[in-house]
Amino acid sequence: MLTTMAGNAYDVALENFDSAVDTMGLDNNIREMIKYPERVLTVTVPVRMDDGRIHRFEGYRVQHSMVRGPAKGGIRFHPQVTLDEVKALATWMTWKCAVVNIPFGGAKGGITCDPKHMSPGELERMTRRYTSAILPLIGPERDIPAPDVYTNSQTMAWIMDTYSMTKGYPVPGVVTGKPISLGGSLGRNEATGRGVFYTIQSSCDHLRLPLKGATVVVQGFGNAGSVAAQLLHEAGAKVIAASDSTGCVYNKDGLDIPELIHMKACCGHVKGFPESEAITPSELLALECDILVPAALENAVHVENASCVRAKIVAEAANGPLTPAADRILESKGVFVIPDILCNAGGVTVSYFEWVQDEQHLFWETQDVYNHLEHVMKTAFRDVLKIHLERKVSTRIAANMLGIGRVAEAVLLRGIYP
Ligand code: NAD
Fold it and tell me: For residues 112 and 85, what is the distance between their CA atoms, to the nearest angstrom?
């Protein structure tokens, strides 16, 4: 559970953009050109529900930038999905792909729905209808969706199939995060959490904080959060608390993470985990720890709870979990923030590897994926850290400066203006 303050993620994305370009002194013309989404599509998704009713869902696909390559970004199924949220997530994807220097621009999609209360049949019909509605935008050479909150490899398989039916042949490269048997990449499922882990390793090296024995709190024990927790646990860190939408569990001596993952897979929740005590979302955020990993949704840490955070490192596995006001508070407390567009970029990086493998019809071993991912993440971390130290700016501004700077350079080189 989150103690979320209602806030508009798109306002946050624009504020972060402005802070970075002000520091960079970027030309006003370029700034206006790259700030806003290139394409925004809202679609009606009619679905026959199991009880015979037709329900109208609203869906979105936003392409923020195609300056550096095809647009890339996940699809979210959640009751709180709004067009502004999708625009924010698409914007962050652009800077994220540029930070890790992969040849993609940013996109995002979503449907406002409550997947937890929908049957597999309803989800499949909704996904296929949404895919038809966004068909004019997607394709391996122009816009490639992937999983995000409450979508998974099955969702991607339905999208791939719906798209392929319109072509008359299989097109695996239209989505990433697919099942392995349909052209997915080994290592994609755990890529985001693994990338989070690599950036935490680099941060610990930079801060001279031993990872072995470090205490960790994970807010949002889903794909990104649980994999990061597993790798941190294997590296000798002690994960003392974790949460999901059902509750928060705490054990000062460390949770048994493999068992917690097993329970989440079997029962769908962390609540009631043996050898743990239940705490509230506010208590979880305020726990004294070395590393806090917000891995749920946007705006989890905000002006009213940021001063309670007692972590040395905040690793943003989620997109936009800190509001700008929270950022300023944590900076004044000396907390080292690994910004989302760096921290969680492992997912899109391995999505890029998957797309490359699909295009080449040549597939890599798991260890090859891990090695390439570690190289990309640690190089990006070094690049961001260099700007942070040399320009004496926050790590978030540094990451944005790196990503925005690469997009601006591409605009200039292509001459994208009349
Ligand atoms: P997921 O659906 O696998 O997991 C989300 C988890 O958050 C679930 O366990 C859910 O119970 C929990 N959650 C939901 N509401 C919550 C609340 N109010 N309080 C606490 N926990 C709550 O999703 P995911 O793919 O792990 O994505 C999580 C975050 O990571 C999102 O911000 C997403 O955009 C970001 N992200 C994911 C990927 C990826 O490849 N999966 C890549 C980059 C960024």
Answer: 11
Judged against a pLDDT cut of 50, whether residue 1 lies above it is answered with: no
The 10s digit of each residue's pLDDT in 314-334 is 999 999 999 999 999 999 999
As a whole number of angstroms, the distance between CA 21 and CA 29 comes to 12
Dihedral sign from CA coordinates of 387, 405, 343, 332: positive
pLDDT score for 416: 82
The owner of tokens 């840490």 is 301
Å from CA of 249 to ligand 1 middle = 17
Which atom of ligand 1 approaches the CA of 248 most closely?
20
Question: 139 C-alpha vs ligand 1 centroid, how far in Å?
Answer: 25
Cα 207 to Cα 172, 290, 345, distances in angstroms: 42, 11, 21
Which of 91, 47, 75 has its CA nearest to residue 403? 91
DSSP string, 364-408: --HHHHHHHHHHHHHHHHHHHHHHHHHHT--HHHHHHHHHHHHHH
Residue in 108, 178, 238, 264 annotated catalytic: 108
Nearest ligand 1 atom to the CA of 76 is: 34
**Structure tokens, 250:** 């705490």
Question: Contact at 8 Å (CB) between 393 and 334?
Answer: no
Nearest protein CA to atom 4 of ligand 1, as residue: 222
Instruction: Give yes or no for a contact between 70 and 49, defined as CB atoms under 8 angstroms apart.
Output: no
Res 6: pLDDT? 52
